Amino acid sequence: MSSPSIENAVKGLSQITEHNLDGSILFAVTPAPGHVNPMLAIACHLRDKGYSVLFNTAEVFREQIESREFALFRSAGTRTLITARLISSFRRDRLSRQARKR
Question: What is the pLDDT of residues 40-88, one digit of tens each?
């Protein structure tokens, strides 16, 4: 049984699949079960609609992804850089908000 949020996301895909996409979709997913699992449900729906799906996430999820016949693409260097920039941005934002409260 899937959660209501996953079901709502899959229902919302009808809007996406009505548009002319080239047939390939890359999921760049934060390497955490709460992020990967819902994307797998959506990816299965898209695959059933005829799209080719590729995942970019941590190696630890390889078996889970490949068991559903999706490919795992790893680009750790870029992903690490992007993650570092996001963390830095969140820290700056938090410090800025704290300064404004004073």
Answer: 999 999 999 888 888 988 888 999 999 999 988 775 555 555 666 666 6
Query: Which of 75, 48, 54, 74 shows the shortest CA–CA distance to 66?
Result: 54
**Number of domains, the chain:** 1
Domain presence at residue 89: no
For residue 57, give the DSSP letter.
Answer: S
Range of the domain at 52: 4-74
Give a yes or no: residue 48 inside a domain. Answer: yes
Q: Which of 91, 96, 64, 79 is nearest to 30 (CA)?
A: 79
pTM of the predicted model over 0.85: no
| Residue 88 placed within a domain | no
> Closest Cα partner for 5 from 29, 50, 44, 41?
41
